[in-house]
Amino acid sequence: MKxxxxxVMPVYNRAKYLRQAIDSVLAQTFTDFELITIDDGSTDExxxxxxxxxxxxxxxxxxxxxxxxxxxxxxxxxxxxxLMMVDSDDLLLPNAMATYDRVIRSFDSPPVVLxxxxxxxxxxxxxxxxxxxxxxxxxxxxDYFAKDAIKSKSTFxxxxxxxxxxxxxxxxxxxxxxxxxxxFHAEDQxxxxxxxxxxxxxxxxxxxxxxxxxxxxxxxxxxxxxxxGILRLHDYEMQGRYPGGKERRLDRYAAVGGMAMFWAYKGCxxxxxRKLALRVLLAxxxxxxxxxxxxxxxxxxKPAQTIVLQGS
Length: 312
Known about the structure:
Elements: E1 3-11, H1 15-26, E2 33-39, H2 46-51, E3 58-61, H3 67-77, E4 80-85, E5 91-92, H4 96-106, E6 112-114, E7 117-121, H5 128-131, E8 137-141, E9 163-166, H6 167-172, H7 187-194, E10 201-206, E11 210-214, H8 223-238, H9 249-269, H10 274-283, H11 285-297, E12 306-308
Parallel strand pairs: 1-2, 1-4, 2-3, 6-10, 7-11
Antiparallel strand pairs: 4-9, 5-11, 6-9, 8-10, 8-12
Helix pairs in contact: 8-9, 9-10, 9-11
């Protein structure tokens, strides 16, 4: 491969935040990367902003087809060994790539690394704690389905912005779905489930690597669409779309059930959408039970060991 990393950034009407997102990638202390931006039929000034960067970025244009199709387009053109998906309203922290590269070298090119993310509001700066120097701490799991719940002050929610995936593995699982602008929701959870049996799976505890911006146009604000996306994960599991066969069924159920529980409580119940919360829990009840069972088991076994990377 020509580069260590390819950053794929789908763009659709993000003129307000786009420069900050691109600049956060171009300002990385690690320089062996390319940035591919896909303008997904923007109707605001996004395309003009992208063109202003000249040959510092690679620009692809396509009619509006949604972020999954846009990311697949970028991945097809990627010349990096690893793919990073950075959304056009989020930020990559300055040492993110250098840290990811260090983890990759330490674990002999793992297929998937999950970084840490910090949240900030669009009218506030990135929290100072996210930029403070920290040791590199990780946990190594056999694969994603073997991952336990983690107690830590860092934030681990699976999202496009904190997944680093070896391109050959991304291609092997078929990448993202060819969904639409209306049906792409929960795409990051779907992808991690498709990667569920690839290992080792490395979860970073420290330092922070990316910053997720909270604003009124976040796709997470569309509670109904996210709910439908979570329910599709259940349907895909029942259709046998995720790997592992009968041997890993309980692990898959626990993974989907954990996602369903999280969304039912955090996304629906706390936001006042009680009927949606109950709908999610009832529809995924066997998987929620599996998640609760697996979570209870961690009190009876030795927790995963934290690994502190030495040197540079």
